[in-house]
Each structure stands twice: as structure tokens, then as C-alpha cells.
Amino acid sequence: MKRILIVCLMLFSAIVVAQNALRWEGAPVDEGTVLNLGTTLADDTLSSAGSEWNNSTNLDMLGWFELTTDSGNLFSAAVTQTGATVVLYRIQSMDGTTYDNEPATADIAEFPHLRVGDFPIATEAENKPIIIGPFPLPPSKQKYLVYNDTGQTMTLNWEVNLYTNNPEIQ
Fold first, then answer.
1. How far apart are CA 92 and CA 144, in angstroms?
2. Calpha distance 137→141 (Å, rounded)
3. What is the pLDDT of residues 39-75, one digit of tens each?
């Protein structure tokens, strides 16, 4: 009888735990623009770092990145290169003051640990936002850069926006 009671309690506990689920705590939060230099970006070129985004207080766990333009086309001409991408990189400051070395275009292959992800570019130049993610976000101050590997120049008004969210057990 004692064994039956223990088995029943174990099954009840498993059912209660199974009712909990990992869900989003709400809609993604628009953290704003993390990279907008107000300049064009030639093919085969790495941008300079954008403004600092501080995740050491919010401690957001996941982020989605959006590559977009506020007017016109994202590229100066239609992208015809198959497999064209705009690659997103992150440099961070774990101590709050000192950042990773900002790589140069010629050295970018030596910094794979800074790579966040790739924005896949379709063979067109329309004004459509491209969203990638989710990606884990470290609890630090951080800056973002992009590398243009599309075969075309990115137009003047491109930017990268960040949206964050956290999972929670409900």
C-alpha cells in the first residue's frame, strides 16, 4: 500500500511539472537602433562599431536583430550574388569600460568568436526588413558591426535594430 501511495505521488508530481511550460514573458521589447552610421557601406567592407547597448542591468537573454532602411532600397542596385549576406558582429565590454579589439575588414576572418549571425540577402534590393534570431545576449555592454558581403553598396539609410525577450516557466 505504501508503494502504491508513493507511486501515485510521483505520478501526480510529474503531471504538475508537465503542466508548467517554457513561454515568452511577453511581446519582444524594441531596444531601438544599435547600429546606424548614416553612411553607405561598400561591398567587402566592415562597418565601424555602433553605439553602446547596455545589457548589464536589463539582463535580457535573447535578441532578434533587424536589418532595415528607413527609406528607399537597402542596396544601391539589385543583389545578384548567390549566398549574399550581411554579417553581424558584436564586441563587448565585460568589465564595463574596456571593449574587445575592434577588427578591421582585412582581419575579420580572424575573429569568428565575434560573429553573431548572418542576414541572408535575397537577389533584390527592395525595402524589406530582414530579421535574424533569437541569439543569446551576454550580460554586458556591447556594440555591433556589420560586414557587407553582397556584391553591392548598402545605401545611406541602413540600420540594425534590436528586439529582446526572455523565456519564463509558467
1. 9
2. 10
3. 899 999 999 999 999 999 889 999 999 999 876 778 8
16 lies in some domain: no
What is the domain-level CATH number for residue 34? 2.60.120
* Residue 112, all three cell numbers: 569568428
What is the Cα–Cα distance from 47 to 88, expressed in whole angstroms?
10
**Residue 124 falls inside a structural domain:** yes
Which helix (H) or strand (E) is 6 found in, with range? helix 2-19
**Parent domain of 31:** 27-169
DSSP state of 36: -
Q: What is the pLDDT of residues 107-151, one digit of tens each?
A: 787 888 899 999 998 866 566 789 999 999 999 999 999 999 999
Q: Tell me, yes or no, if the pTM score tops 0.85.
A: no
Residue 14 lies in a domain: no
